[in-house]
C-alpha cells in the first residue's frame, strides 16, 4: 500500500517514517527539497514535476515492500497555494491544468491512505525550535519558521478535516504523541479507500478555490 504522511513541520512524520523503515523495511520517499535539493529549484513547474517523480517512485516500488510512504503529499502545491495565499506558488489555474493532465495520463494518483499527524501547537513549536537549534539556525530564523507555520497548522488541519468528512476512508488522523501508538495505527490500516482519483481531485480544487475567495 502507498501511504502519504502529512502534517505541519515537527509533528513527528519523519521520525515515524524512519522507524517504520528501520523496523519493517518500508520504502520511504522524502519530500521534494530533501530528495532533489531546494537549491536546484528552477521554476514552479520544476517543483510540480518533481512531485510527479515522487509518485512514480512510489508506484514502482510499493509492490516489493510491505508499505511505501510518501513523506509529504504529491498534490501539496495545490493546497499550499491556498494556505499560503501571500506566497507565489505560480498560477493556480495552470497548476490545476498540469495536475489534471498528469491524472489523465495516469502519471499521478492519490495514496491508499493519508495519515495526518497533528499535536498541540505549543508542543509542535517547541519541537521545531529544538530541531532548528540542532541544525544551527539562528534565533531569528527559528522564530520565523515557528511563526510561519502557526496559522498554517490550523488551516491545514481544517483542510484535511474537510477532506476526511467528504472521503472518510481516505484520511486517518494521528495524535502525534506516542510513536509506538502511531506505528500500531498505521500498520493496522490495511484497507484502501474506494474513491476515484478524479472525484478527490475535483473536491480539492473546489475547496482551494473557495478558500481563495
Topology:
Elements: E1 2-6, H1 13-24, E2 27-29, H2 32-37, H3 44-61, E3 68-71, H4 76-83, H5 92-104, E4 113-118, H6 121-134, H7 139-166, E5 171-175, H8 179-187, H9 197-212
Parallel strand pairs: 1-3, 1-4, 2-3, 4-5
Helix pairs in contact: 4-9, 6-7
Describe what you observe in this structure.
- There is one protein chain.
- With about 210 residues, the chain is an alpha/beta fold.
- The protein has one domain (about 1-205): Rossmann fold, CATH 3.40.50.
- It contains 9 helices and 5 strands; from the N terminus they run βαβααβααβααβαα.
- It has a 5-stranded parallel beta sheet, sandwiched between helices.
- Helix 4 packs parallel to helix 9 and helix 6 packs across helix 7 (about 140-165).
- The protein is globular.
- The protein starts with a strand and ends with a helix.
- The model has no long low-confidence stretch (mean pLDDT about 85).
Amino acid at each position: 500500500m502507498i501511504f502519504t504522511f502529512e502534517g505541519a513541520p515537527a509533528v513527528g512524520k519523519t521520525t515515524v517514517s524512519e522507524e517504520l523503515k528501520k523496523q519493517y523495511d518500508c520504502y520511504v520517499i522524502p519530500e521534494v527539497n530533501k530528495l532533489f535539493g531546494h537549491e536546484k529549484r528552477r521554476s514552479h513547474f520544476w517543483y510540480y514535476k518533481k512531485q510527479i517523480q515522487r509518485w512514480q517512485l512510489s508506484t514502482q516500488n510499493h509492490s516489493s515492500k510491505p508499505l511505501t510512504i510518501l513523506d509529504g503529499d504529491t498534490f501539496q502545491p495545490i493546497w499550499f497555494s491556498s494556505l499560503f495565499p501571500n506566497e507565489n506558488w505560480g498560477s493556480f489555474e495552470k497548476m490545476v491544468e498540469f495536475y489534471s493532465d498528469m491524472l489523465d495520463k495516469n502519471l499521478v494518483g492519490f495514496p491508499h491512505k493519508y495519515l495526518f499527524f497533528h499535536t498541540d501547537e505549543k508542543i509542535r513549536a517547541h519541537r521545531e525550535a529544538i530541531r532548528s537549534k540542532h541544525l544551527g539556525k539562528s534565533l531569528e530564523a527559528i522564530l520565523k519558521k515557528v511563526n510561519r507555520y502557526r496559522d498554517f497548522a490550523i488551516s491545514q488541519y481544517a483542510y484535511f478535516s474537510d477532506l476526511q468528512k467528504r472521503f472518510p476512508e481516505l484520511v486517518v488522523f494521528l495524535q502525534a504523541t506516542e510513536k509506538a501508538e502511531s506505528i500500531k495505527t498505521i500498520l493496522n490500516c490495511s484497507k484502501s479507500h474506494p474513491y476515484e482519483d478524479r472525484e478527490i481531485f475535483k473536491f480539492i480544487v473546489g475547496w482551494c478555490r473557495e478558500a481563495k475567495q
